Amino acid sequence: MDFWDKLTAINDAINGFVWVKIGLVLLIGTGIIMTCLTKFFQVTHFAHWWKKTIGSLFDKKVISHTSEKASISQFQALCTALAATVGVGNIAGVSAAIMTGGPGAVFWMWLAAFFGMMTNYSENILGIYFRRKNHEGEWSGGAMYYLQDGLGGYKGMKAVGKALAVIFAICAALASFGIGNMGQVNKIVINFTSAFDIKALSSKVLYSSQGTDVTLYMLIVGIVIMVIVGFVVLGGLQRIAIVAEKVVPFMVVLFVLGSIIIIIANAEGIIPAFKAIFTMAFTKQAAWGGATGVAFKTIITQGCKRGVFSNEAGLGSSVMVHSNSNVREPVKQGLWGIFEVFADTIIVCSMTALTVLTSGVIDLSTGATDASSDATLVAEAFSTVFKFGSFDFGRYFIALAILVFAFTTILGWSHYGSKAVEYLAGSKAKTVTKIYKIIFVLMILSGALMTSSIAWDISDTFNGFMMIPNLIGVLAMSPLVMKLTSNYVSRRIKNEKIEPILSYDPAIQRENAEVIAKTGED
Predict the structure, then answer these.
(1) Is 178 a member of any domain?
(2) What is the per-residue pLDDT for 289?
């Protein structure tokens, strides 16, 4: 057994414990609890949060750039968060869940997303409520702050809150190199060089490892990605947000439209697809007992893990960019958190799943497929319609979609990692975060030349280690979430004249309350 095999075995053991023994129960449990405590807010106030999110995109206060150095617009915050969440997980992650857990895994993705809406809502509320200004006058918020000041604010919990905050920040910084960097780059390089092969470059093998050739073509693509990412990331949050707001809406709409065309073209497969999703979600057949199913535990695990990998609800990661919004009302940013999960999983991931399940590239009764990889499965689905003679447009489209999706994920996670490092560095944050960004950019080349999938597997584990302290913080702060939600509903929906609750910091509370009172901002 070589080094990579040993590392994989160790990671698998840890991953199984973190996710199966603790993570899934905590993840779904927190979503259910927050949904109940907020009285099914995502359902009962559907019209309100829809109006205040997607319905407000023509409101200049929401989409226009802010002049405040410390913040970005609400729409930019959403796009930057979606840049990190709408990524390879929406294509390769969904198809991987189906290949491993069968069509039934999609049901568990939906379920995790439904409850995850209120988890993400709660995270964003707490992120805005406990945020503060950093050394550059930029807002800083995230799970580490509501763990430190929220959970740590309870009697006798100061040390526990601080310890969990540090654990979260360390895991977030490490995860940024896996889920947010090397894993994404590796997918880009493999799919792009395969779809757009240039023999003169791909024939030049630099070295081989684990039966995989690393070519000059891969190196060149990696260098190009590294230079472009470096230009954006080293330009700071404002530049990341500007790129995200231009790219994210375009890529999501284009992918969804392409998926809808596939689904309509295979309309006869829609009903069988939904039937397979719901009937196979509760199968008790064991994968090891035959080739006709997968274990019930595997279906749930794959569905929920891929759902979280895609929409990040429960990880506490997207809070770090939502906290940079120019919004003054915590619940307003919480509404964008609900929409983020809805857009990522209920819309984009569902489009991927239905594209695969209706196109005939997978056997709905057994989950069997001839596809060699998760990304190949989606490409084959697109090729059932977008193939003109020998020109396989579907394959090229998916390669480009993965490139754009993964590229924006890298940008979003660079911000998450820098915020985690900023928290850990304390007074030396300015220097340390600059060093982190340089290392982050350089690590892109490692992802391009990587031959093992261990980066993805380790990312799953770090996701779990981030998720656990974050969800503990959300549960501990659930009374505050209820209080903030009740205050918002009373003022903004029932039009009662009561004082707003906006920040843990009396100075920020006073400043924001005065601005809202003067401007009538809603």
Answers:
(1) yes
(2) 28
